């Protein structure tokens, strides 16, 4: 699977079609540990059938048998097989092997309760029309989507929406948050409000997680419909030196030099002297293509956190 980065919104139906096509190529194999072996070509034999392994799946297998993944990647192929098989022989219990096409995409504990990207989208958005705008990012490790209100909720082109996050390979939790999206800068601000936020590990029944997500989505849509007005309200809060404020934000929230530079770069695209402009720069930096998804998501969530703190009169800087 080739990673797809955030871009302009597409129709929700297009997103569903891509997720459905991916699901058709996927297979789960619950197996005993003694039904799994590595061969000298780094192929994982599952019940005797050889499968190529994605790097991240080999990392998971290494963790499962308690071999440092960095060491395993440096080993010649025959030594990889020798090491892995030696410890697989001592491993008891069951594993969940997740396959896509012919490749092993994940090696997980049998306790892992998969929530598919497709079922998350269909459950949470079951009443949402197919032409609803959605931005999304999809890679072998993660899926995130921003599903937007069809029409703007402010004169500045701001939409309410939902943020969904998931991994089918054990690399992140199931997430749902309210958000506000600003068309002019492809800018999503994620609100980490506990009343409209869901974060669940893949350790409970998938149907229970999906039921929670469906219920939480109703509250999140209502929260999202109010967000544009809340964001607009901070235009009246003056910030005398926005670039200095952004530098202090980078220090206060321990963002590091790459994210700090992204804040300044984003601000200079659309400068201004209000708290709105500062928050806008933080969330706009969350689109910087040179940053990892975790960093971009952190910036979009930080924008929501600053907005929430400022509204409550608490220290945000």
Automatic annotation (TrEMBL):
Family annotation (InterPro entries): DUF932 (IPR026325)
Protein name (database record): DUF932 domain-containing protein
Species annotation: Engelhardtia mirabilis
Lineage of the organism: Bacteria, Pseudomonadati, Planctomycetota, Planctomycetia, Planctomycetia incertae sedis
């Amino acid at each position: 699977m080739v990673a797809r980065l955030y871009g302009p919104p597409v129709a929700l139906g297009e997103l569903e079609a891509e997720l459905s096509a991916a699901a058709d190529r996927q297979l789960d194999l619950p197996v005993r540990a003694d039904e799994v072996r590595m061969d000298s070509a780094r192929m994982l034999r599952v019940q005797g059938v050889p499968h190529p392994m994605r790097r991240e799946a080999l990392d998971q297998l290494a963790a499962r048998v308690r071999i440092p993944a960095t060491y395993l990647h440096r080993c010649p192929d025959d030594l990889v097989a020798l090491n892995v098989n030696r410890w697989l022989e001592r491993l008891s219990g069951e594993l969940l092997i997740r396959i896509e096409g012919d490749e092993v995409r994940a090696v997980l504990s049998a306790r892992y309760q998969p929530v598919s990207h497709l079922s998350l989208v269909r459950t949470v958005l079951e009443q949402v029309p197919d032409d609803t705008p959605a931005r999304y990012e999809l890679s072998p490790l993660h899926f995130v989507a921003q599903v937007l209100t069809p029409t703007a909720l402010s004169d500045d082109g701001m939409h309410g929406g939902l943020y969904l996050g998931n991994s089918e390979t054990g690399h992140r939790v199931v997430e749902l948050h309210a958000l506000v999206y600003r068309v002019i800068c492809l800018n999503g601000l994620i609100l980490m409000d506990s009343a409209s936020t869901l974060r669940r590990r893949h350790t409970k029944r998938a149907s229970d997680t999906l039921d929670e997500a469906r219920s939480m989505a109703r509250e999140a849509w209502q929260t999202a419909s109010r967000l544009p007005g809340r964001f607009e309200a901070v235009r009246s809060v003056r910030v005398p030196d926005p670039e200095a404020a952004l530098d202090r934000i980078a220090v206060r929230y321990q963002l590091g030099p790459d994210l700090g530079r992204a804040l300044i770069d984003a601000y200079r695209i659309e400068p201004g002297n209000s708290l709105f402009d500062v928050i806008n720069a933080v969330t706009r930096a969350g689109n910087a293509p040179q940053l990892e998804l975790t960093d971009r998501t952190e910036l979009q969530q930080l924008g929501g956190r600053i907005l929430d703190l400022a509204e409550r009169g608490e220290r945000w800087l």
